[in-house]
Design a protein that fits this description.
Layout (H helix, E strand, L loop, with lengths): L4 H8 L4 H14 L3 H8 L7 H19 L6 H27 L3 H29 L3 H28 L10 H4 L5 E5 L9 E5 L2 E8 L2 E6 L13 E5 L2 E5 L6 E3 L5 E3 L11 E4 L2 E4 L11
Antiparallel strand pairs: 1-10, 2-3, 3-4, 5-6, 6-7, 7-8, 9-10
The structure holds FE2/S2 (inorganic) cluster.
FE2/S2 (inorganic) cluster binds next to loops.
Length: about 290
């Protein structure tokens, strides 16, 4: 039995839904401001925010644990624990935002990940308290205990990202598999005005939207969690025609796939379009967000 098989068992443990689902509902109840949610997901930087912040927090804790092994470094170790506790606040906020838009198996692992991290933080509060009372050895012991639990939590976080693809870009492959040359995608006359429809270009599925004479196409798979974008709806954001994902409401600009609202942080794959003899032709843009001419 490989150790990470046990994490798969966590993902299948439906009993965890008794805690995971109410936690998700609570986050969704609290996190109603879309601009704040976008920042917490990482939309402005085009990358999930939680793993970046987690480096600052967990890195501080690991560094403190190492310093505790070195004579006369207990004060800087205490300072690092303070930094770790402070940065844990936005780290947790970003993590809960991502959690609220995850699927059930991810949420089961996510709730155990959160429980481990909360336990770790409680341990570091005890550690810091002991240090402030001058009990540096006791503080170091609390710190190492907290680090042990936190390491298990970090392993679960890695599993969420790399194995369960929470936060991963689910549209990354389009520039590699989409046709580089103009490829037929059906008759213009078959495209309803203002409605997304699924089409195939070569072996690749795309979503095509015609608005009057304008035709735009994106990769069919949502970068957030692979929802079929042709089931979404056309909307308008700041004067730009966009497509809203049917599962968690990410909004992508039709012109270039840019993320206007999360939880997605990676752009949808744009497929530049042209019309020849009443037929739509598409080819993949070589780099998402930069439409080819
Ligand atoms: S699959 Fe989640 S926003 Fe599209």
């Amino acid at each position: 039995m490989r150790p990470f098989d046990d994490i798969d068992r966590i993902a299948r443990a439906e009993a965890l839904d008794r805690v995971a689902a109410p936690a998700r509902d609570l986050v969704n109840k609290v996190l109603t401001d879309r601009r704040i949610a976008d920042v917490l997901h990482g939309v402005p930087i085009g990358h999930p925010l939680h793993p970046i912040l987690a480096q600052a927090s967990f890195g501080s804790f690991v560094s403190a644990g190492l310093l505790d092994l070195v004579p006369r470094t207990r004060r800087p170790a205490a300072a690092l624990i303070g930094v770790g506790l402070l940065t844990a606040v936005p780290t947790a906020a970003a993590g809960w935002a991502d959690y609220s838009q995850a699927h059930e198996e991810q949420q089961r692992v996510g709730i155990v990940h959160a429980a481990a991290n909360i336990t770790m933080l409680a341990g570091y509060v005890m550690s810091l308290g002991a240090r402030l009372r001058g009990r540096s050895t006791r503080g170091a012991l609390w710190g190492w205990a907290a680090l042990t639990v936190g390491s298990a939590g970090a392993a679960l976080g890695g599993h969420l990202s790399y194995h369960q693809a929470l936060g991963a870009n689910h549209a990354e492959d389009y520039p590699h598999i989409g046709p580089e040359d103009w490829t037929d995608a059906g008759a213009v006359a078959d495209l309803p005005d203002g409605e997304p429809v699924e089409r195939r270009v070569g072996e690749v599925r795309v979503v095509v939207v015609r608005r009057g004479d304008e035709i735009r196409a994106l990769g069919q798979r949502c970068p957030h969690a692979s929802a079929p974008l042709s089931d979404g709806k056309v909307t308008d954001v700041d004067g730009d025609a966009c497509l809203e994902c049917p599962w968690h409401g990410s909004v992508f600009r039709l012109d270039d796939g840019r993320v206007m609202h999360g939880p997605a942080t990676a752009p949808a794959a744009p497929f530049p379009a042209r019309v020849r003899d009443g037929r739509v032709e598409l080819r993949v843009a070589t780099w998402p967000g930069v439409p080819a001419g």
